[in-house]
Design a protein that fits this description.
The complex is a heterodimer of chains A (340) and B (253). Chain A is built from nine helices and 23 strands. With 340 residues, chain A is of the alpha+beta class. In chain A, a hairpin with a 2-residue loop joins strand 11 and strand 12. The longest helix of chain A is centred in the middle third of the chain and has 13 residues, at 163-175. Chain B has six helices and 13 strands. Chain B has helices at 2-18, 27-37, 41-46, 112-121, 130-133, 240-252, and strands at residues 49-58, 63-72, 76-83, 87-94, 97-102, 106-109, 136-145, 148-156, 163-168, 174-183, 186-200, 203-213, 216-227. In chain B, strands 6-5-4-3-2-1-13-12-11-10-9-8-7 form a 13-stranded antiparallel beta sheet, with helices on both faces. The radius of gyration of chain B is 21 Å and the shape is globular. The chains are: A alpha+beta (340), B alpha+beta (253). The interface between A and B is medium-sized, with 36 and 29 residues.
Chain lengths: 340, 253
């Protein structure tokens, strides 16, 4: 019934989603690699340091062909052909097939850089980051990483959750980079989370008072997503990296900074899934997510169904990944270099 | 048949015309009675400061936290709400400066209508000072809330949106408040129901307050109130980053 609404942010999460993680010794496991569907193939885009995938020698740019003998191609082909399945859902469907329980071993077949089939048995480790709880939301592992690439700051986090830790580390990353040539916020694969965090993060980047990222339209009120400039603000160039799996709060953040002219957006169009919603637990233990508002970005357009179109469209390619490059990050770094 | 209904309606209408409606009490009477039934002017005036502690719960969202609020004459305040998964939300009033600081939004100084509203709400013993805070008051009718007949009083401040309060006819206690609250994010409809009145230091206050704001409902339960205890030195001083914002703002001027 919820599916017939054909809108995002409406769904039922089975009680088992909560129970699996809460159970002793249980939890979602990960092989320690991220993939994106590129040209109909699940291509490894990132290998987590010290992960089972890295230890087994899996490389960026390899193609995941099958898991425990089950090929991914038919799944990708079927879902990609369905107009009702957007990129975010496709990526989630693929990543769910790459997950398992901690300690579980699965046989992965890859195509390596020379398109030869390579088989690796990977033992699943814990998911990256720390398990975060937020009210009735199922427990989710959240990571945040920050570093300097030359004299450019870079921060990446997988969700707008684990509020205190992520907000603190984001703030520290900006503060450590006040004299950097530029600052890059990588929201690729980030499906969103707590909407207010977008406002709080923007406060580190916008010095002008009374600016807003957009407006949340409720039944009886409109709430402006106002930015509070911090005492110290980074004033250099800001790049935000997005892709089709950047959704909700990621779109609120990227779209708002773009509309305010404060950031340049690199990558591919976002998921167009940005309805503010809440989670409630049903009497049977399931979680029920439902949208409570619409969201209009500062440029005047709804993000739901439209998304954020990058200023500079850059697609990942398998060839560049095999060569050790991240074309989207490279484009952002190049822009910052020119702005110097 | 239809004519019978019309006639019945006319009879009923005529009967209403003959009924003698009970005259509504003056708003001053209702508001002064509230002060009286909650302890009286003398009890309020003995209170110079307060420390309230309690809990907060967003039941639908599964979020819980704690509330601590220091307040003192004439309008000094420091409160901290700590919610699991959200962190600290601090707020305060010091010498006319109203501020807020949270893990999610960072520090900020309140301004405009939001500041005025915060200062009004932060007035210590506000119930006692309704004449200064709301120059215009009006009894707007009656309404039944949870089976109890209540007087509806509209209080209009010098600046800002009017507040509508409902006082039980029988007990004189306030059970509901409605207004349009001025927030940084915009004006939002606000409704609060008050219950479970308990007495601390001679003044009776509601210890269960359920607020509805923009479709979100949460309940504050006051567990303890300490009156006229020593307040830690500097308790009402704004945090360092609020002071930094104040000096940044002063520099720009």
């Amino acid at each position: 019934m919820l599916g017939r609404l054909k809108q995002t942010h409406f769904g039922i999460f089975p009680a088992s989603v909560y129970n699996d993680v809460e159970a002793e010794g249980g939890g979602d496991g990960s092989p320690g690699m991220e993939t994106r569907v590129l040209s109909g193939q699940a291509v490894v885009t990132n290998i987590e340091p010290a992960s089972p995938a890295e230890r087994a020698g899996v490389k960026q740019g390899w193609v995941v062909v099958s898991v425990n003998g089950k090929p991914l191609a038919p799944v990708i082909e079927k879902l990609a052909a369905d107009p009702d399945i957007h990129e975010l859902a496709l990526e989630r469907a693929v990543s769910s097939r790459l997950s398992g329980m901690v300690g579980e071993r699965k046989k992965f077949a890859f195509l390596d850089g020379a398109n030869a089939v390579v088989t690796k048995e990977l033992e699943f480790g814990p998911e990256r980051g720390q398990a975060a709880r937020f009210g009735n939301l199922p427990p989710i592992h959240v990571f945040i990483e920050s570093k300097k690439i030359g004299n450019t700051g870079y921060v990446r986090f997988n969700m707008f959750l684990d509020l205190v830790r992520v907000m603190n580390q984001f703030g520290e990353a900006v503060q450590d980079c006040m004299s950097c040539d530029g600052f890059i916020i990588d929201l690729r694969g980030n499906p969103g989370g707590i909407g207010g965090m977008a406002m709080g993060m923007a406060g580190w980047l916008i010095d002008k008072p009374d600016q807003r990222l957009g407006t949340m339209q409720l039944r009886d009120a409109s709430l402006n997503f106002v930015v509070n400039p911090r005492p110290d603000v980074f004033k250099g160039p800001v790049a935000v990296l997005v892709d089709g799996s950047s959704a909700s709060t990621s779109e609120i953040f990227a779209g708002g900074l773009k509309d305010l002219g404060r950031a340049r957006i690199f990558g591919t169009k976002t998921a167009a899934a940005a309805l503010p919603s809440i989670f409630e637990r049903l009497p049977n233990g399931d979680g029920f997510q439902y949208a409570t508002a619409n969201y209009i970005s500062e440029g005047g357009k709804a993000l739901e169904g439209i998304g954020v179109t990058p200023d500079v469209e850059v697609k990942l390619t398998r060839a560049s990944l095999l060569a050790g490059h991240d074309a989207v990050l490279d484009a952002a770094l190049e822009w910052i270099k020119k702005k110097k | 048949m239809k004519r019978h209904y019309v006639l019945a309606a006319l009879i009923g209408f005529t009967a209403l015309g003959f009924a003698q409606p009970e005259a509504l009490p003056k708003p001053e009477t209702i508001l002064d009675r509230y002060v009286e039934v909650t302890g009286g002017k003398a009890a309020y005036e003995k209170r110079k400061n307060a420390l309230e502690t309690g809990t907060l719960e967003f039941k639908a969202q599964g979020l819980k936290g704690s509330v601590t609020r220091y307040s003192a004459e004439p309008a000094e305040e420091y409160s901290v709400i700590e919610i699991d998964g959200v962190g600290k939300i601090e707020a305060g009033i010091d010498n006319g400066v109203a501020w807020e600081k949270s893990a999610i939004l960072g520090p900020r100084i309140k301004s405009g209508a939001e500041r005025v509203q915060t200062l009004r709400e932060g007035t210590f013993n506000a119930s006692l000072h309704w004449r200064e805070l709301f120059p215009k008051v009006e009894t707007a009718g009656t309404e039944t809330i949870d089976g109890e007949l209540c007087y509806k009083v509209v209080l209009t401040p010098t600046e800002g949106n009017p507040e509508t309060m409902f006082f039980e006819k029988k007990s004189g206690l306030a059970v509901k408040t409605m207004t349009v609250a001025a927030t940084q994010m915009g004006d939002v409809p606000f409704e609060a129901t008050s219950s479970d009145y308990k007495t601390f230091g001679g003044v009776t206050i509601p210890t269960k307050i359920t607020q509805k704001v923009s479709g979100q409902e949460f309940t504050i339960t006051i567990q303890d109130v300490k009156i006229n205890q020593p307040i830690p030195e500097g308790r009402f001083d704004p945090p360092a980053d609020i002071k930094a914002l104040l000096s940044k703002s002063a520099d720009k001027k």
